[in-house]
Amino acid sequence: MTSEKGVDGGITYLFTDICGDSPFWTPDVLGSPAPKFTACFQNTVLQWLPFIWLCLTLPIYVVVIFRRPPEVRLPLTSFSMAKSVICIVLLILTIAQALSVNQNGSGCDRQTVTSTSYYLGYGLACGSFVVVGIFIQLVRIWGVISSAVIYAYWVLLLVCNIIPLQSTLSYDLYCAKSNVVYHIFYFVMLLVQTILHSFADKRSLRENENEVNIIVDLITCLSITSLR
Predict the structure, then answer these.
(1) Cα separation of 182 and 13, whole Å?
(2) CA dist., res. 36 & res. 38, Å (int)
(3) In 3-state terms, what secondary structure has residue 111?
(4) Within 10 A of 90 (CB to CB), how many other CB atoms are there?
(5) What element of type H or E holds 146?
(6) With the C-alpha atoms ordered 226, 34, 115, 107, is the resulting torsion angle positive or negative?
(7) Tens-digit pLDDT profile for residues 11-62
């Protein structure tokens, strides 16, 4: 009994130490029709999970891929470049949001966030985008058509960002419009990136361009439908 309390106390102390005044979890969060997850939970669990996935899987994947002889280099097409460009866009968005919240505050209360979890979460996100953006081009040069590890990373990141988007739309819609615009655009970029990684690169330029046209048509249809 004492050991369990000690473990719980250690975990509580850990999150209190890095999250500052924000609690890690509130008991009634799941019982609310519009649940509001704490800033600590969003800056730790939701930011750390995709990074942890990369740390656990990417080194093994790199060893397996680069130990075998390289295949024919895949052509540099708009399809493969779009994946790295979106990584750069997400990196810029993350840095801009981190600086904006640090200077102007976050949410309707305009509370300035200075906790360790805040800086750590945004820092891990930026580092992940840099690593993944470079890795996408490295595997293309090595002749690897697709990567299940990177695809799973984007799916996990997309799922983890549903909660921040929901919280922003529920609580910041009318008083923090810039924060709402950021989360919507950020989520759209993640969705587009996930769709791009759902299609494997091809060794033919024509096949790649056909896939790009299909994706563009799909995104256009989704945009028109959402505006109706």
Answers:
(1) 32
(2) 6
(3) strand
(4) 22
(5) none
(6) positive
(7) 555 666 677 667 777 777 666 666 777 777 888 888 889 999 999 999 988 8
